[in-house]
Amino acid sequence: MAPKSSSKKRTATPSASTAAQQKTFEADLRSLARKARSDSLASSPLTLLLTQTTLYLRVTGLLLLAALSTLISQLSLSPVYGSIPSSSWHTYLVAAACFTGWSGNLALERALRRGREGGSGAAATYLLPVLALWVPVVHFVLGGFSGVLTARWGPVVTEAVALFPLVAVSASCVATELEGVDLSGLPLPGWVVEGVPGLGAYGGFKVAAGGLVGRTWVHTRVGMQVVLGGVYAVLAPSRLLVLTVPALFHTAVLNTHAPTPAALGRLNAGLAEVGYVLLDRAESNTGYISVLDSPKEGFRLLRCDHSLLGGEWVKFLGQGRFKGNQVAEPVYGVFTMLEAVRLVETPEPIVDSEANALVIGLGIGTTPAALIAHGIDTTVVELDPVVHRFASQYFQLPSNHTAVIEDAVTYTSRTAADESEPRFDYIIHDVFTGGAEPIALFTLEFLQNLHALLKPNGVVAINYAGDFALPPPRIVVNTIRTVFPTCRIFREHPRDEDDFALNGRDFTNMVIFCTKTDTNTNSDTNSDTNSGTVKTITFREPTERDLLNSPSRQAFLLPRHEVTDADFLVEGPDAEGVLRRNETERLVKWHAASAAGHWTVMRTVLPEAVWEAW
């Protein structure tokens, strides 16, 4: 029986083996058939187009996120360093990061894929959520060392640590993804096939970088950084996300820049140590806006990024001799000098109750409040809605004024061209933030629009803050004099000779008073009684009513420190000519030096902790 059984086994084995081979063969045939069908489909232009479109969507997403990260980085640096110092080296750093990531993408991919099999797309994408969510932590920590780093090196160091790796890895991922581009199977011209990848990448980046940042909670500085990291995490989930837990904890619990009530409470606990309290804050189209109180000293300030837009003494409101005052007492009394437009003697006296005024740039509303107190119909043009809201809510800006929340260039161009629009007896031009003025508001074309809006008998006062040791003040004055032939210039205080000798800096506010009358300003005769025309600008002595029961106005309303041509310390081609709309780079190149000087001055006005704890 045994041999028989053995014989059966021998005859069964070949049959099973043959069946298995048959199944394997059939499976191979089916696999080959599927591959053949896949290759056939892949070779069709429609399938190729869909495949390449998917690839481009991934690349576009990476570029959009990278572009947004660069915008958010600058926004996050501006409260600590100001917008101009934050941007001085930004473009070069981003370019270096892009070059590094693009050129090193193969080495990075090999390092990340070592020891792993398969995988599609760029493996480096898994690093992006980690890098993005640590950015607000780096900004917060290094911001606390801004006094040591200074406005010159602080932005560079911060972005080198936080932004450079994120942009470099993003560029590496884009380079890896674009290696899969193949449009050769499509009926397209050769230049399109060769140029689409590069043009598409560049175009996507520029569109994202040029977009407007929103103003909801999600679009606040810290909010945008967290959302950006969250989007990266959704697009590239991995076990590496565990590395973001400490960063998320810090942002949620310890970062006082976060737009939450808890963060505001922690911020004020720290500010109390240096004698300040933050009443309100918001992020708007001109920067980070906040209202600060000094309970000990009794004043209130309005801040925009690393600048102060104005302040007033709240401890005097309704107290003692100030009881019943129509205006608040300003902390920076020099700004009351702008109100001296009312003191300029004109050929025909201007009656307050019949006059109207245009104020460009609101701040806390010191000047418009005074004009309104004198019974002048006042229109305020302010770009930032939050500035107007805070001036009305926290400062003594009267409600009986006309508010125009609009870009001043657009407003003046439109109203100057429309003869049915009102003309003004007084125009006050007072715009400044971040160490430099908006250049467009000092061009020949803009000033010509102001000239058209000013009545023949009217007066304009233009506030300009700058460093007399640099060319911009002379260029601006040249431009103003080209439009308004009769002007006198005054600065807030004499030059600090010690500071100038030590630092070569002469930074100050100056106010340029001008009229439309074309006269000989060098004449010793102030007026011609026969013709009624003013030969040069003169100021009448202020009355008690002009001073509005204000010590600051008593000290500063009447201009005292006149500027002569000798005060402009720079001569030569850089300081000659006028500023035209298409030549604004003449001033831009000097803004970095001016903004750095302004940053240093601001650090002496308020404690470093106030600027850093925004």
Automatic annotation (TrEMBL):
Pfam families: Spermine_synth. SUPFAM superfamilies: S-adenosyl-L-methionine-dependent methyltransferases. InterPro entries: SAM-dependent_MTases_sf. Residues 12-22 have a biased composition (Low complexity). GO terms for biological process: polyamine biosynthetic process. Residues 1-11 have a biased composition (Basic residues). Residues 1-22 are annotated as: Disordered. The chain crosses the membrane at residues 55-77, 89-108, 120-142. The keyword Disulfide bond does not apply. Keywords: Membrane, Polyamine biosynthesis, Transmembrane, Transmembrane helix. The keyword Cell inner membrane does not apply. NCBIfam families: MFS_SpdSyn (NF037959). This is Polyamine aminopropyltransferase.
